[in-house]
Amino acid sequence: MGPLASDCLVRNTWVCPKYVRTRSSDLTAALTQHVELTTVSVLIGLAVALPLAVVARRLRLSSLLLGTATVVYTVPSLALFSLLVPFTGLSSTTVVIGLVLYSLTILLRNVLAGLDGVAADVREAARGMGFGRTRLLLRVELPLALPTIMAGLRVATVSTVALTTIGFLVGSGGLGNLIQDGLQSNFKAEVLTASVLCVLLAVVADLLLLVVQRVLTPWARSQS
Amino acid sequence: MTSLVVPMSALGDAVSWLGDLSHWQGQNGIPILTYQILKLSFLALVIAAAIALPIALWLGHVGRGGALAINITNVGRAIPIYALMVVLAVGPLGLGQRVTVIALVLFGIPPIVTNTYVGVRGVDRDTVEAARGMGLTAWQVLWRVEVPLAFLLIMTGLRLAAVQILATATLGAYFLAGGLGFLIYDGFSRQDQAELVSGAFLVAALALLVEGLFELLQRRLDPVRRTDRAGGVSVPRV
User: From A184, which residue of chain B is nearest by alpha-carbon distance?
Assistant: First the structure.
């Protein structure tokens, strides 16, 4: 007995300050990887979704694009990551490609919905004022679609934070790696600490994007 | 060149893996694993629907708890399924089918609640008033007016839940619950790429099949003849 009995690492408790203290570098590294994977994936998803949605609308292929995206979204993450392994191996690239495909689906749906939601008379007015296609898109359609696009960005980000944990499959799951390790070694503090951090990360990211949305769309504040 | 050659041979390996009759027999054969995952998922969907549908129909009918019905989906999205399953498995439940079924039910509930609530609330209030004026009881209004008109969204909720449940059930293999996810689990742990890709392909195909089946049911069973079908495909006129 003595000092050992009061040691939460030895007793394997859920909450263990000593674990957080002694393994803080592991936790920081996992959290950093988690943030990086999520940020890169969502940003690539957004960079692909915006032009893809605009082009699809011009070519009147929106429903075809949405149908294809729904098919991708239906494939379980475990299967999607595994199907990428022959191409990109056990690497973070596999995780990023998978996460981009999922976030892309959510973002495409919202970008298209936002652009479709622009009232026809607003478009007419802009055209009457001599706006060309590109200026109409950049100055009228995209700003008006911004609240819907930002809503999509928030959903995509929160989902991606959660989904990144599955990256443990190929050894790049951020906090998911710790959760996987905790399962294998039956280490409660590691499992709970990493899980709570993951949920906190999702909440913080959501709040941050909400602030960004408020700043970008000051006109929407009084309405809602 | 190698980067292109490797995936092609991986595809060939997977095809021959799937063609090997020994992989279709025994306890870890494809038919048994498929049966396991379908049984687990179906059970979870029935339990999730039995919990979620009455609550959501009632909330939608009386028009209360909207914030709860919508936010349950947002909360569900922020919780990593894998983390929750590990917490349950390391905690009181241990490894096995129990932890998997509970996780499946928990993550099947939100889409059913949210979509059913939105569907019932979305029914035109004038229509509901008219039904009341004709002397229909609250029960009759729900069953004969609100549920048929909200049918498409109720089915959408069930479809999303089914797909979500199937995806989570794949993870069940990591908790020794069997199912098709076992091929992915086993493929990774033995570094057998042919088994891994075959398993992933079967899981993806099953998910798409379930999705398609629900789409079909949604169209076939719709009690209302609709002129403008929500979520329908609009064909561009050339």
Answer: B90
pLDDT at residue B231, rounded to an integer: 42
Q: Judge: B187–A71 Cβ closer than 8 Å, yes or no.
A: no
Q: Are B78 and A158 inside 8 Å of each other by CB?
A: yes
Cβ contact A191–B188 (<8 Å) = no
Backbone dihedral region for residue A15 (phi beyond 0: left; psi -120 to 50: alpha; all else: beta):
beta
Annotation: CATH topology of A14-218 = MetI-like fold (1.10.3720)
How far away is chain A from the Cα of B140, in angstroms, using its nearest Cα? 35
| CA–CA separation, B189 and A82 (whole Å) | 12
ipTM above 0.95, yes or no: no
CATH value of B27-221 in 3.40.50.720, 1.10.3720.10, 1.10.357.10, 3.10.350.10: 1.10.3720.10
d(CA A162, CA A99): 10
Question: pLDDT tens for residues A69-88?
Answer: 989 999 999 999 999 999 99
Kindly report the backbone phi and psi dihedral angles of residue A16, in degrees, each rounded to the nearest multiple of 5, phi listed first.
Answer: -145, 100
Tens of pLDDT, residue by residue over A169-204, are 999 999 999 999 999 999 999 999 999 999 999 999
**A168: which 2 tokens?**
């443990």
- pLDDT at position B232: 35
The answer to whether residue A145 neighbours chain B at the CB level (below 8 Å) is no
pLDDT at B3 over 70: no
